[in-house]
User: What shape does this take?
Amino acid sequence: MKNTRLSVALLAVVALGVTACETDLTGLNKNPNSPSIDTPPPPGTIFTNAIANSAGYVGGAGYQNSGVSLLAQHTAQAQYVDEDRFAYRSGTIDGYFNGPYVADLMDYEQVYLVGQKNKDPNTWGPARVMQTLMFQTMTDMFGDIPYSEALQGTAGSTLKPKYDAQKDIYYGMLKTLTDANAAMGSGTGLGAGDPIYAGNAAKWRKFANALRLRLAMRLQKADAAKATAELAAAIAAPGGLMTSNADNAQVNWPGDDQYNNPWAGNFATRDDYRMSKTLMDVLVANADPRTPIYAQPTTADPTKYAGEPNGLDNASASGYMTAASRIGAMFYPGKTTYGTFGTAAGKAAPTFLVTFAEQNFILAEAANRGIGGLNAGQAKAYYDAGVTASITQWGGTAAQAAAYLAQPAIAYQGGAAGLTQILTQKWIAFFTQGQEAWADWRRTGIPANIVPGPKATLSYIPRRMMYATTEQTVNKEQLDAAIARQGADAMNTRVWWDK
Assistant: This one.
């Protein structure tokens, strides 16, 4: 199926700002903090807005380039290096925490309520899947967060929601995905208001099952029995799993210089990020066909690809403006004129949410570990499929993937070495999805060479982000209860699944 592009007309209706995490819906909602099923706006309009906000958050500059892509050591800062040294501004963290609650999570709740009222699972099911994706992103970053009592800002309901324990959140999200998958398949659906699958419920069911695999594997150390049971259930679930890149959950941007891929939009006005040495060393050493897609040759030597070490001070980092590779030209064409956007391909490049490549790497890991009903003999096929899907997802060819997989260092080896290969390739594939690469590193410690830089303010890679400072004012009692349960509000406190 051809992937659907965001409708420019619908985006114009909602006056969307795709590089921000918040959207003013005053003109659409009677009260954007109080979902109503009596006089709702069109659910497709709200859903389009919510999807674009979610993609703008998880794929955007503030979250990726000043946050999780640095933690995953996919990218590095060559100027203004605070975040690369873990010196986060409170306003940045506040945005990470508050953005989804005041924007897309509430929008998905609105669509869910309309779908429930209309008895239309093909409307409320996708809303629940996307809501789960965003809650997963949030809890992975912070740990315990408002979940069961969140999004209830209506008369008579709580405005100070409790923070649920992360274990309960994960169990709840897994049930939500199970229920949404089981229900979808009937109803009118969202049609053109669905910028991911154009209302194709069969595709949404695959998305739900693939996301369920992600959540299940996250529990591998914290709750092994639940992890293996959920993996097996997701593999066998009605609707099946993704079968090709055509099933990828991704947001395709119009690329019209008004609504562009968030990275292309960000790099149109700044030139202070470079590729991380941690990632570039792996790409270059293995002649990875993704190298010229992820990165550009250095300015100092146009025949060379190289990265910048993470965690430098400004004086040291500035030398890498010419000595390290910029992010790939599809996002970052080089600065000929300040304010120019990326190439046409980059402006319309997708923001990936859950992919066929990721699904295969999860299955490869499960097979390698012998969990979820899979066995070690199945791991190589899933590993090869994951590598091939990642390379072709980014525009490479199956022939390039085959040649790459034929290299002795890349060919699947099995056992502990094979597990390292699976997780390393998954880390490479997660370029532009730093939050997932960071989460896998916290769970597994792979790649092992992700370590703090020489000028980092911490002696460790953060295990979580600190809560928004605004919560101390608006929800202090519930916040304090969460901290007492989870541990200090510090970046070395581990979330529940991070064992």
Observations:
- Residues 121-142 form the longest helix (22 residues).
- The chain has a mean pLDDT of 90.
